[in-house]
Amino acid sequence: MEDISIFEEVSGMGHEQVVYCHEKSTGLKAIIAIHNTVLGPALGGTRMWMYENEAQATNDALRLSRGMTFKNSIAGLNLGGGKAVIIGDARKHKSEGMLRAYGRFLKNLNGKYITAEDVGMNANDMEHIAAETSYVSGMPETRGGLGDPSPFTAYTTYMGMKAAAKKQFGTDSLAGKKVSIQGAGHVGEYIIQHLVKEGCEIYVSDFYEDRVKDVVNKYGIKGVSLDEIYDLDVDIYSPCALGATVNNETLERLKCSIIAGCANNQLANEKIHGDLAMQKGILYAPDFLINSGGVINVYAEVIKTSKDWSWNKCEFVYDQTLKVFEQSAAQNINTQQVAIDIAQQRIDQVAAIKSTY
Ligand code: NAD
């Protein structure tokens, strides 16, 4: 493992707890990061990915869980921020045993962290986890859950995109706009459906060629290579895969005037790349704000309400995103920082009232 000081990293980002889970017979290697529980139990999905090394996996868990703190806060949910990663190839290494072993670790956290699906996981996987613990959401509807959160995530991302178009182009119609979608996964495909309906010209890339072929055939859009996606002459770049794709190198190449996607942690460095995008006249729609639809529906399941409640709650995104853009322009602060400040204010307010018994 690369030489990193875990405690330095953990305390630097303000985490409360990081749990390493290992189960030998199934090969489970999972990291659960609990960032902040001021607003409630930490909730965030579990990601299964082929990390190059353990340091990269730890870093992803730390960054993603911090993002969940802000996402849950800005969405007005009574939830703290947490996230987990499982190291491995979801297409090859995932098994019932591994998921159940993971569920047993969750049980031992006694509800301080509640999981749901993320990259490499689906609602059926949640069912295996639920065989061992009740601290899981995003369960299939046939099991009394509210199912896949992806349509909700896609809807709020689409609303965030429209708010960005309103700010950049003076109209929120996306008809005729060129949009590049990086990642044709659960959420990416639902976003494609919204954009096809609205008459956009769509380019798509995915790590898995079969995913590109599938959406190209279904929706008559154009497939591009993993690298080509950054050089396209498009209006909107929509990162819908993994994080840190907005960085020094890609900001040199991107020709879009809006970045709006569902991926978590799109900015490699929030300050540097948030500022750089702004200087380049690219409007960045804060990821944790516009992709909050999924967690809204996962929360609806936790508090035992309905999908109607979730759709209704998702409606805050368009106006809130516009407010962030206005505040960013007025104060000359990058949009991500403005959204973080709004989220942090709510956490600070609730933390203060908890200072008395
Ligand atoms: P998914 O696993 O269904 O899809 C992700 C896709 O991205 C996969 O098809 C994968 O092959 C592809 N991919 C990975 N690296 C890539 C690359 N370099 N270039 C192009 N494609 C690449 O995951 P998802 O649920 O659709 O989530 C997508 C993103 O949205 C993630 O960052 C996730 O954290 C975020 N997100 C998802 C939800 C949700 O409701 N599912 C909610 C909030 C945020």
From TrEMBL:
Residues 147-355 form the Glutamate/phenylalanine/leucine/valine/L-tryptophan dehydrogenase C-terminal domain. InterPro entries: Aminoacid_DH-like_N_sf, Glu/Leu/Phe/Val/Trp_DH, Glu/Leu/Phe/Val/Trp_DH_C, Glu/Leu/Phe/Val/Trp_DH_dimer, Glu/Phe/Leu/Val/Trp_DH_bac/arc, NAD(P)-bd_dom_sf. Keywords: NAD, Nucleotide-binding, Oxidoreductase. Coiled coil: none annotated. GO terms for molecular function: nucleotide binding; oxidoreductase activity, acting on the CH-NH2 group of donors, NAD or NADP as acceptor. This is Glu/Leu/Phe/Val dehydrogenase. The active site is at 83 (proton donor/acceptor). SMART domains: ELFV_dehydrog. NAD(+) binds at residues 183-188. GO terms for biological process: amino acid metabolic process. It comes from the Bacteria. Belongs to the Glu/Leu/Phe/Val dehydrogenases family.
